[in-house]
Amino acid sequence: MIPALLRWLAVPGFALALGACSAPPGPQFTILSGSENDVLEPMVQDFCKSRRATCTVRYQGSLDIALSLKPGNDPEADAVWPAASIWIDMFDTARRVKSVKSIAQMPVILGVRRSKAQALGWVGAKVKTKDILAAVEGGRLRFLMTSATQSNSGAAAYLAMLAAGIGKPDLIESGDLDRDEVLATVRGLLRGVERSSGSSGWLADLYRDGARGGTQYDAMWNYEAVIKETNDKLIADRKEPLFAIYPEDGVSVGDSPLGFVDRGRGKPVEEFFNDLQAFLLKSETQAKIAATGRRVELGRATPLPADKATNLDPGRPLTVVRPPEPAVIQKALGLYQEALRRPSLTALCIDVSGSMQGNGERQLLDAMQFLLTPARTREMLVQWSKDDRIIVLPFSERVQWIESSAGDDAAQAALLAKTMQLRANGGTDFYTCGARAISAMKQWLDDERHLPAIVIMTDGKSQGMMSTFEQAWQSDGRRVPVFGVTFGDSADRSQLDNLAKLTGGRVFDGTKSLTQAFRAVRGYN
Amino acid sequence: MAISRRAFGIGLLAASAMGTGGYVYLRQHPEIAGRFGEPKKLFGFIGGEKEGFLSNARVRSVLDRRFGLILDARRAGSVELVRERTLLDQKPQFLWPSSSVLVELARSSGVKISRDQVIFNSPIVLYSWDRIADGLVKAGFAEPAGGPRYTVDLLKVLKAIIAGETWEAMGVAGLFGRARIVSTDPNKSNSGFMFAGLVASLLSGDVIALDSLGKIDGDVATVFRRMGYKPPSSGKLFDDYVAGGAGAQPLIVGYENQLIEWVLQDAERWKRVEASAPSKPVILYPRPTAFSAHPLISVDRAADDLIEALLSESLLELAWEEHGFRGPLGTIGKARNALLQTRLIERIDAVLPMPDAPVMLSLLDRLTTA
Prior knowledge:
Chain A contains 20 helices and 17 strands. Chain A is an alpha/beta fold and 525 residues long.
């Protein structure tokens, strides 16, 4: 009884003590989030600051967030905030995520360059998915879209296309995916993919950088709010904005769920999460979120008014494509990766210079083993299809050999066997390797069937001149993007950055895990 | 003054008797024990629809201060929380699913039950939007019940869904594709589970029994297949409904209390919705419907006290007043809220009992393999 009495007596004293000094510092708090939430991060950080908490937002694709929630994996985060709750429901089978609430609603729509939309007769018209298909098939439209297996916006666009291809956009059922005519329709639609990526935010940057640099893309599938953000920047740059197309027969919607990951860190961390979620859902914050072009829950805030010039209208009622059963989604994603997406044409320039000897060589061969072992790539939904073309070019100061292969299992095994013989030696020249890659790709580039990319993995600084690559790249004229993967401490990122900037590619940090970096690159090709 | 040995012995005996008596008394009156002892921490899984109630600061305060109980209650689907090994292996001290049938299922999953007791009742309802409900009324599927509340002929709606009717054919303009009702996953969550039982009974013309399952299981499977993705918990489905609007969630299955709770959470928001939202949420009471009981299962004896606490008048009244849960007998509480008065039907007479657990299990198996 005495401890209880002391507890009672202690309350007023504690309250006084609390009043006398400032609030205790809040927790270290990590959120694993989709890239589309980056514009909301300042609101999160303001809240964290008010609680003297240190918040870190780590951006990942929806599939990565989902995989981290599988039993046995550690998301190393206190909260998850993917683009759609289906990713949590499908993978968090041990129910470690709780208090999940939708922060905003984000339909995935098609933004089309306004003059292009005009030319297609889509301004002021009701557009259905079959109209988009007809434009793609007629060679009048190409678009940017994230990888359906790596990013939610790509998955959402793909599922909407699939539903429309089936001809009953209210639902996709398992048996529909076995019908040849459905697969042919969707393959036709995906032929319109001009560039892909693993991140919706990066895709929007690619569109904008293209407009700035004179590379005009026709269109982009992305979240309604990301189309709005892109338009704000395009208009500020005095560039042509995107015209929003909401397919009449249905769009997919991401519900942006924020959930708490219970890692046993105690009540204060959970309470901090609850307060953060309540803060994001209160009317004032929801009004700010609505001002970014996001849709918010009924009655929480007024959506942005419709904009005639861009057709963006977050208040517009939508027909929403019902997400299919998880098993159907998994089947559909497998089909996308193995049969329906535009096949990849990937040239892998891999550094086997002397500085790679020892640990570097081992990690490189491990990463190649991952990339060319179907059972492992399939787990991460980055497997090759038989229609893909893989070209391996090991380089030091010269390209040691060039081997081109199809993407079927046997061909991958042969390519892997040859790659595993590699030993590191000599200098470094990736410019020449890149130029050789372009000429090795030429025969497939010409038919425009494949989605091309050059991946350069290096741990050093290249000798030679960038112009060696640039001349080959310009004369080919097909805008093949270069993706860099850095490795080790002495990699000169600036050289790779310049190549990425020139070609609309991206540089990935492979210092922590070369395998992870290679996997991420696959989402872009 | 010296105390005689006898007096000391009697004193000791009396103190010991008082101690024992006090201990026994406090054990039988957790509301008093809670005031004095260290609070007792209990961990368990609950159906999503009760998450709001248990995170209500007033409820937590009553549980802590009056009953000495602090809960770590995690949301899971009501069906999975009595069946899934990944959840049961975490050794929950209590389970709070949403149907009495699930107590039987818990037992058959090997859960050792110390006590179980129905705490709340809530009818299964359909949630929709005013313009959709008006369309259903025009087409003869629903009837207004005075105010923006409706009753719906569930069997008629189900037959239209099975026949693949479009929304348009059911009187609802502006919605693309075939009509559907979406519930939670019946293998994980109770509202979907109960809806499966209700659909099977309605289609068979009586409370479904094992020998008549074969006649209607194909039709029940069609209703569920047409739903596509089914969320794992009722709370999540309702959140999707209010967040997604009429285009995303035209017609869903839920508990009556969910709208009440949502309205009461933020009365100003509700007033804004009533004043200006392009479409407003409405309840359609199926005729007949099923009542969802919410039995608390104490697995660990330490959780027995939670049953007493939850049945206390103050918590039951709070459950109605702020969260819309009817009491153990299905009757509403004392409070009347002007915001909701015209939207609820106080007395629900057409009620179908739930089929037995073995029938439900067999039905779930057939839905999984269909």
